[in-house]
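Lay summary. Proteins are chains of building blocks that fold into shapes, and those shapes determine what they do. In this project we predict the shape from the chain. Here is one chain we studied, written as its sequence of building blocks.
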Amino acid sequence: MSSLRDYLAQKRRAWLSKQDGIATADVITPTARVTAEGRSGVRRIRIRDHQVLSDSAPDYAGYDLGPSSPELQLGVLGSCVTHIFLIQAAATEVVLDSIEVEVSATIDPKAGTPGFEDVPPSPQNISYTVHIGSPASDAELDALFASVERACPILSLLTNPQTITGTVVRAPEHSEESAR
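And here is the predicted shape, written in a compact code that computers can read:
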């Protein structure tokens, strides 16, 4: 079985190749489509050729068939931090034998209810801990960590103000004109 060190060598080759085309690369437009499934209410997330199920716990009329949206968000942050650690380690040739990122947050279920109108419904106090096995020096790991915090797109998304727009489009079979 190959090791993380072997993977980092492969990652470095891919990273170097990608650097050659960055100056002429087109803007990327990732998309996700989410549908609520029939009686279960399970949210099926489709991204490219992949599917992920998101659900609620039974106390929110769910069946616990997958992680909740806030849990997925924490997982997305952890996945991105892990990936950027791998990229930055490969780019700077910092040896890693293992990496695990643990992400946590608090959510107050009283958010928005009477007397708690000012409590945000979003996860709060988000933190992550990176567990690294590496022969690298503390200075190398500190530099690696700093480069990850600068480069991680999801960390940036969550820590920097964003503009998000939304619209509602009525399905044709439910338009006011079709009801007549």
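What the prediction tells us: Residues 4-17+68-160 form a domain with the GMP Synthetase; Chain A, domain 3 fold (CATH 3.30.300.20).
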